[in-house]
Specification:
This protein has 224 residues and is an alpha/beta fold. The chain folds into 2 domains: 151 residues, SPOUT methyltransferase, trefoil knot domain (Alpha/beta knot, 3-Layer(aba) Sandwich), CATH 3.40.1280.10; 52 residues, tRNA(m1g37)methyltransferase, domain 2 (Trp Operon Repressor, Chain A, Orthogonal Bundle), CATH 1.10.1270.20. It has 8 helices and 9 strands. It binds 6-chloroguanine. 6-chloroguanine binds next to strand 5. 6-chloroguanine (6GU) binds next to strand 5.
Length: 224
Amino acid sequence: MRIDIISVLPELMESPFKTSILKRAMDKGIAEVHFHQLRDFGLGKYRQIDDEPYGGGAGMVMMCEPLDNLISKLKSERNYDEIIYLTPDGETLNQKIANTLSIKDNLIFLCGHYKGIDQRIRELHITREISIGDYVLTGGELAACVLADSVIRLIPGVLNDEQSALTDSFQDDLLSPPIYTRPAEYKGLKVPEILLSGNFKKIEEWRSEQALKITQKKRPDLLH
Ligand code: 6GU
């Protein structure tokens, strides 16, 4: 998978892809992330990329021309499956969206800034708009990292133990059951007997029960 990320602050997104599991995905060639500085496509001596909104109002708007030039250049180089605009008014990211995107080959993530992008860029290029939740960030960069992480970790070969993506919270619209490691007793708190029993059928039953119970308690909205 290749992800091209368009931003005025690409440096904000470097470390997540240089660390741990995402780094390993990059090193193995399973995923590649390319950053594009929108400012390089800015207009004039000052490399302008934003301007005041027509009709007035607070905040600046990301202009058509730099975005159109950069996106058109990328599109001339390969076919993109989706061109995603990270914006608080997009559809809220969930595991289903991450699953869908994890089987794509080429994605563009456009990070919004200021008041957002000129509507015509949405009409010309954007195929999908995604938010990471109902709160406002200073820009789309951290959201782009969250989206990329949620997607890249699902690509086969990225996680060591393929099972671990399949047993994630949310993968079946259920939260994960409690987990324990050694010691069997800590500060008087005991690991549930069943987990020490070696009876894997019973253990799986217990985990399913617990997952259901915890979901009922913490996130009843997930159970349709
Ligand atoms: Cl994608 N962008 C911004 N600026 N804020 C957000 C968001 C995106 N998702 C949630 N809040």
